[in-house]
Amino acid sequence: MKLFFTAVAALAVIPAVAGNTVLVHMYNFDFSLNPSGGPVEDAVINVGDTVRWILDEGMHNTKSVAGIPEVWESPLFEVPGSTFEHTFMNVGVWWYYCTPHGFDLGNQTAGGMAGTVTVVPEPATCVVLGAGLAILALARRRS
Ligand SMILES: [Cu+2]
């Protein structure tokens, strides 16, 4: 029984979701982790992290494709430095696009001015959760 409470305690200390923020630039008809002129790269984040899009130049926005669990749509930005945020709670590869310069392909991907956010499980949470469940299983077998 003592072990059972240990297991419950282990489950109780699961850390809150990470809550990091990744900056994605909007410029020159593309989305990129790099500021203007840098190579185009897509964001890879943990569950609970936030993507903050920032307009470097031009007139752009960010909108999720239809039919995915993550749903967002920013205003069309014209003022450099304008930002929009979305926090991701679902694991997967989520496509988005700029309404004037990209398009929803209708199959949960996008073309033209488009990008992806890849959301992976929070590693720390997985380890702690796994350890907690293992202890719980052990405790049940012994009681
Ligand atoms: Cu655009």
Task: Supply database-style keywords.
single chain; 143 residues; Immunoglobulin-like; four-stranded mixed sheet; 2 helices; 8 strands
Strand order of the largest sheet: 2-1-4-6
Uncertain segments are: 4-15
**CATH superfamily caption:** Cupredoxins -  blue copper proteins
- Supply the CATH class: Mainly Beta
Architecture, according to CATH? Sandwich
Number of helices: 2
- At CATH level 3, the topology is Immunoglobulin-like
Radius of gyration using CA atoms only: 20 Å
Overall pLDDT score: 85
* Beta-strand residue percentage: 35-45%
Structural class of the helix and strand makeup?
A: alpha/beta
Can you count the beta strands? 8
The hetero compounds bound to this protein are:
copper (II) ion
> What sort of overall outline do the alpha carbons produce when their principal axes are compared?
elongated
CA-CA gap between termini: 7 Å
Looking at the chains present, what oligomeric state does this protein adopt? single chain
Helix content percent band: 10-25%
How is this structure best described in words?
The chain has 143 residues and is of the alpha/beta class. Helix content is 22%, strand content 36%. It has a single domain, classed as Immunoglobulin-like. The strands form 2 sheets. A 4-stranded mixed β-sheet has the order 2-1-4-6, with no helix packed on it. The longest helix has 20 residues. Bound molecules: copper (II) ion (CU).
